[in-house]
Amino acid sequence: MGAGYVGLVTAACFARLGNHVRVLEVDAQRVEQLRGGVLPIREPGLDQLVEESLDAGRLTFDSDPDSTHGSRLSIVCVGTLDGDGDWTAGTVQAALETLARDADGPRGIVVRSTLLPGTGRKLAETVKAIDPRIQLALNPEFTREGAAVSDFMEPDRVVIGVEDPAAPSALLDDLRRLYAPLDAPIVVTDLTSAEAIKVASNVFLATKISFANELARLCAAMGADVQSVVDGMGLDKRIGRSFLSPGPGFGGSCFPSQSRALPDLARRAGVDAPIMSALAASNEGQADWLLDRLESTASRSVDGWRVALLGLTFKADTDDLRESPALQLARRLVARGASVVCFDPLATAAGVAALRAEGLDVTAADSAEAACSAADAVVVATEWPQFRLLEWQAIARQMRGTFVADARHVVDVDEASRAGLTVIALGVVAKPAAVLVAVEDPAVAAAPLAVTAPR
Ligand code: UDX
């Protein structure tokens, strides 16, 4: 149920594993497109999987609720964010009630949508009040955008929450069979613990990123190279290197909303959780810290500057702009008086439209080079691979100023420095393009100066 991001990946992957999957989607237009193999989202490998399973007759799309009749189980994959990007269980509840009221539909229901801990137990009561034969299980997903198919097919673990983990359950047996080909450990637990595994995993990763972001600030203040620091820390198996890269802050549909919701839940439960409660502010502060560094390196404010913003999506290889830190950088630049010219390989128009809808007067460029033309400074906000290959010599000739703030560690610092630019990097201490030395008598200074790189 639900042909969104999670639903389509789940349906296509289970169909690939040899199951017959009928996707129920309320949007009739989306159903028509999907029947023709046209996907509403971008996800590497997903279109091939959908096409292959459509051809093999293992995948069908329908907007008629009766199409669930005869299925062995239902998997609910409907969205859980409201218009403000905050969590709501309302859509899941409505989907479950529809399924429960249809006595001819499957009585085993699995919720894959992300639920706040405690929600599943209440939902189980709701559906059982409609039909006591119904069994409810939770099966949270841990897939990243841009890598969802491989994350599904090669999971670190499969988590299944059931009403009573100790009791025999036909639904649990079915889920075990569904996942048997994947060779992954299966964690079976109660409903609330399954929900907590999902949310805590995301909030823990968000904490790890925020720790790296704060470490970047401290390293910059101490004159240490944060990239060496996180590499050195990451070699410790207890720590691990992944999700320890500092950047402009985390974004997307999961980390920000869940980093707000988990401390809220703690507050409502009367639980003191200072670490979780600090996450949102730490994340939001990263954009201002980056711009403070740009301004202190330039010894002036960006007020009146033309700034090229390269990258608008919340990470590379997606067109998703939800809670993107790049948009936050744009907001903070405009608040400081800069005029911002945006370029993103996939989302320039959508990103500029979103910012303009907030009343920000930003403009669009149709290439990175065009955005940088006549710019006083460049801010690299998303780690698109093509930004690693930018020709800084050519860009520097077109720029008005000389500053490049690299929030993603993708700028070739040596090449940019050779082009006369000053890179404000995460981890590499900024190299000045030139050092001016004032001496009393220039004739005496004809002897070569010994210059060492600044630490
Ligand atoms: C995340 C989880 O990884 C996934 O398991 C869950 O199912 C959904 O949420 P996703 O939102 O697709 O996936 O993005 P992810 O790749 O995890 O990145 C999240 C954000 O953190 C991005 O803005 C990314 O740029 C940022 N990030 C990630 C860092 O700043 N540093 C890192 O080291 C890793």
Topology, pairings included?
Layout: H1 5-16, E1 21-24, H2 28-35, H3 46-55, E2 59-62, E3 74-76, H4 90-101, E4 108-111, H5 119-130, E5 135-138, H6 148-153, E6 158-162, H7 170-179, E7 186-190, H8 191-222, H9 226-234, H10 255-268, H11 274-298, E8 306-310, H12 325-335, E9 339-343, H13 348-357, E10 363-364, H14 368-372, E11 377-380, H15 385-388, H16 392-398, E12 403-406, H17 413-418, E13 422-425
The structure holds uridine-5'-diphosphate-xylopyranose.
Description:
The protein has 455 residues and is of the alpha/beta class. It has 2 domains: 5-194, NAD(P)-binding Rossmann-like Domain (Rossmann fold, 3-Layer(aba) Sandwich), CATH 3.40.50; 286-425, Rossmann fold, CATH 3.40.50. 42% of the residues lie in helices and 12% in strands. It is built from 17 helices and 13 strands. The chain has helices at residues 5-16, 28-35, 46-55, 90-101, 119-130, 148-153, 170-179, 191-222, 226-234, 255-268, 274-298, 325-335, 348-357, 368-372, 385-388, 392-398, 413-418; strands spanning 21-24, 59-62, 74-76, 108-111, 135-138, 158-162, 186-190, 306-310, 339-343, 363-364, 377-380, 403-406, 422-425. It has a 6-stranded parallel β-sheet with strand order 10-9-8-11-12-13. The protein is elongated, with a radius of gyration of 26 Å. It starts with a helix and ends in a 30-residue tail after the last strand. The structure holds uridine-5'-diphosphate-xylopyranose (UDX). Uridine-5'-diphosphate-xylopyranose binds at residues 141-145, 202, 209, 243-245, 247, 250-252, 254-255, 314-315.
